[in-house]
Amino acid sequence: MEDLLLRPNRAPDRYDPRYDPVTDPGPGRNRDYAPTYWIDTAGETPHDDGPVTSDIDVDVAVIGSGYTGLSCAIHLAKEHGIKATVLEANRVAWGCSTRNGGQAQISAGRLKRSQWIERWGVDVAKKLHTEIAEGFDLFRDLINSGEFDCEAEDGGHLFIAHRAAIMPKLEAESRLLNETFGYGTRILSREQVHRDHLRDEEAAGAMWEPDGIGVHAAKLAFGYLGMARRLGAKVHSGSPVTGWQTRNGIHYLATPGGTVRARAVAIATAGYTAPGMHDLTRHRLMPILSNSIVTRPLTEAERQACNFKSKLVLTDTRTLRHYYRQLPDGRVQIGSRSSITGADAENPKHLNALIEGLGRKFPALRGIEIDYSWWGWVDVSHDMMPRIFQPDPARTIYYALGYGGNGVMYSAQAGRRMAQLVAGKGQALDLPIFTSPLPSHGLLTPFRRLGQRAMYRWYYLRDEML
Description:
There is one protein chain. The protein has helices at 37-41, 67-80, 113-120, 122-143, 167-179, 190-196, 217-230, 300-306, 348-361, 407-422, 432-435, 448-464; strands at residues 56-63, 85-87, 103-105, 153-154, 157-161, 186-189, 205-209, 212-214, 234-236, 243-247, 250-255, 258-267, 285-295, 313-316, 323-326, 332-337, 370-381, 387-389, 397-401. The protein is α+β, with helices and mostly antiparallel strands. The strands form three sheets. Strands 1, 2, 9, 10, 11, 12, 18 and 19 form an eight-stranded mixed beta sheet that branches. Helix 4 crosses helix 10. Mean pLDDT is 96; it is low at 1-9.
């Protein structure tokens, strides 16, 4: 166990708030964490194995040390007897695993169950629902394992209609979940939401889903880190992959400290995937910025004015939805989509828009002090669904990417499924998310952000005015 005491041998570089995965060649090396509530309250940063310092040979290299990469390492060891080597460009779980809202929901990707049926038919949709439900069970088992504490609060998820006109669609989705998928949702009126849960003044009603867990995002990531290392995985921070060649079936991954020679590579870099990392991932994702803020702890009078009776995870029905909840220490966290580019991420208008959204929902919190503000890049796929896939049968390269902001829970199962593929035991994985690659943006790639700007304007008109 002596290796558990090793630390990176280089002080972290300054956090770069303007980093942009579309325009920057890579995420940097050994950069410090974003200034999130999660990092500030997680306690001492846990030990890792430090940077790669020489050429090494490994069975499996996992690129990325967020939830997915660490889950892959955990399940390679637990279920297949393979001790992986995880390569992280910066500090462990530096990306969205320590920048999200800490919300675990029974979803993956951006599509609703009704949209699954439209795309693949009801039989495939039911199988996909079973896969997502199994993923939630796995996630719940991990956080209840007793190996770490991530301040989990289990109680369900409220999907809150932000306008009365949304309620018929929400009611139809609830009926579909109940009748077709056998999943016990309930529709709540505005009065029920206000009486039993919270006084969100925008709420016209809500759909309650039984599966929803709030977690401390960084404590979850660091808990996974400890589990992976106790199972024999090596986790090397400050070790970005700066070059990649494959010769005679062996992958040569160049890092600043040495070359990692791997028989297989699992990619788990999400919205922080470097543009030139590999041809199999190039232009396969659209990184989207998501902002988040956390208030100071509420006074008792403020809590009563907002009627915070529950600490369920909450999202509203906007296309660029708000995700929010009361945290265990009495603060309120809220997040939503924001800037198009990293260069514009620090523009105060994005912070002000989020503060205004908080005030619309909870007028008693207008003017409250904001203790934390940060942003992170979400990995959105072109067709709004994730992929856990081996894109070329002739090459031992695998990826799990494209959660679209719904990766806190499903990343655990995605990492497990990617480990299954790496171990050569994925023959039974026949769902579309396992059998097709991430679609490319193709000829539209240079114009993606122009399209994003236009769509954001359309979403605003549709959600707020039409």
